[in-house]
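target protein:
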Amino acid sequence: MTSSTQFIVGRNDLSTCKVIETPLPGVMQLPEDGLLVKIDRFAFTANNITYAMLGDQLKYWHLFPAPNGFGNIPVWGFGRVLESRHPQIAKGEVIFGYLPMATHFVIEAADVKKTGFRDAAEHRQSVSPVYNAYARVTGEPAFEGRQGDYQALLRPLFMLSFLVEDFLADRDFFGANTVILSSASSKTAFGLAWLLHTHRKPVRVIGLTSAGNVEFVTSLGCYDEVLTYDRIESMPVEPVAFVDMAGNADLRARLHRHFGDRMVYSGRVGLTHQDEASGDDALPGAKPAWFFAPDQIRKRSKEWGPGGIDQRFGAVWSGFTAAMGPKLEVVENRGSNAVQRVYLDTLKGRVSPAQAHMLSMED
């Protein structure tokens, strides 16, 4: 193969998308310590739409350059080293990390350790270090088969759930006994709900969802109550913390007006609705604020020391996947046509929340 196939989208119009071919470098054309990686499979979820919507704001478009006006959406998945110019990394090694939607890409390996390394490419250094880290997972059972699918589909989202839960608990939930989650069917939301429901017994968890998703969200068993969006005004007015997974300005305004100054925290995590936040300053209650995971990572890394986050995350990860993984239908698709179909269905909200997609650009 002499070229890489890439799936790219319009940065200012996400409904515009196309497939392009770019030439592959030969081994001697790789940068010093460079790796040519073949992408085997990757997860695609609504969270990847968030990456696209925040591509400019949070510099996600910097990770994998695309032609002018287009972007390559970052995804989590697995690759195999085809060519290596790094003396400590062998051809054939399997890696897990942040990938482009493509068949191949190049890494400039640095800080190589037994467990992983980072990409030192200059254009990638403006983003959080977590996005440039790659795990070396050859022969690791936890990264193979269905468990590997869960790593790609759930681990990055559950890490976000873990950090949000830790942020809220560290602040005693801002005095609230009830946490409300929008887009309750999303993987980040039910990961957070599972953590709250399992480990924070005094905290009540309410999931907001559409009528069509009520059955699925209820079946998850991690919400104390599941309500459709038209029932917001029926909730008792009490101190609540709201975690906004949808980014829907109308929904946010309704909740703030209903709870008034009893809205003690309003955090924005996801962005599957593209909206303007210009009216947030006028809303009663706590001012809506973005939750930015790298800030919490930096705080806890300093307080918990090296390995502290991984140790605590690992203690809950296996329980989460055992409880929630089997509730998902993992759907595998291959080829650029399938990737485009799943992308557009996810963008337009046509994907069942019970489905989880693992994709490959190669047929």
